[in-house]
Amino acid sequence: MNILAKNTILMDTQEEKIKLLAEMIAFSVVDGRLHEREYQFVWIVAQELGISKDDFNELFHQELPSGVIKSEFERIQQFYRLALLMHCDGILHSKEEEAIRQIAINMGLNPSATNRILKLMQKSPNAMIDPEVLLSIFQEQLN
């Protein structure tokens, strides 16, 4: 299990899990359409978090809950999940790209670091980045 996957174990409350999924669902439809691969990706995350299929499907009919992701590590992790979701349908829409950049800014993440991550993901054949590389890019921005 990699360092980013391990952190989902630390999600204490059902509320945190629901907020994460709701945010991922909201982002998955930013291009105006929910692609099957996006749905499947978010459903896999929901299963890993122990969310029932009924609760998962209900999230598609709810408003996005408000709240702040506490630690920088959690914000980086959520940004990366959303970036993976953006790439999972195989089509990179300009609305998705604009939305993820704005989300990253709203999360308080460094725009230079997030831009570097997005460029690396575009160059990667499967949009995946080594977790250590991901974290090091954000660490470089702190120095």
Report on this model:
The protein is mainly α. Helix content is 64%, strand content 0%. The chain is built from eight helices and no strands. The chain has helices spanning 3-6, 14-28, 36-48, 53-58, 72-87, 94-106, 111-123, 131-142. Helix 2 (14-28) runs parallel beside helix 5 (72-87), helix 5 packs antiparallel against helix 6 and helix 5 (72-87) packs parallel to helix 7. The longest helix is centred in the middle third of the chain and has 16 residues, at 72-87. The relative contact order is 0.14.
How would you summarize this macromolecular structure in one to three sentences?
Helices cover 64% and strands 0% of the residues. It is mostly helical and 143 residues long.
Produce the secondary structure layout.
Layout: H1 3-6, H2 14-28, H3 36-48, H4 53-58, H5 72-87, H6 94-106, H7 111-123, H8 131-142
Helix pairs in contact: 2-3, 2-5, 5-6, 5-7, 7-8
Q: What is the radius of gyration?
A: 14 Å
Q: Sheet with the most strands?
A: none
Into which percentage range does the β-strand content fall? Answer: under 5%
Q: How many DSSP-defined strands?
A: 0
Q: Which stretches are poorly predicted, pLDDT < 50 over at least 5 residues? A: 1-10
State mean pLDDT (0 to 100 scale).
81
What is the helix/strand order?
A: HHHHHHHH
Task: Looking at this protein, list some descriptive labels.
mainly alpha; 0% strand; 8 helices; disordered N terminus; single chain; 64% helix
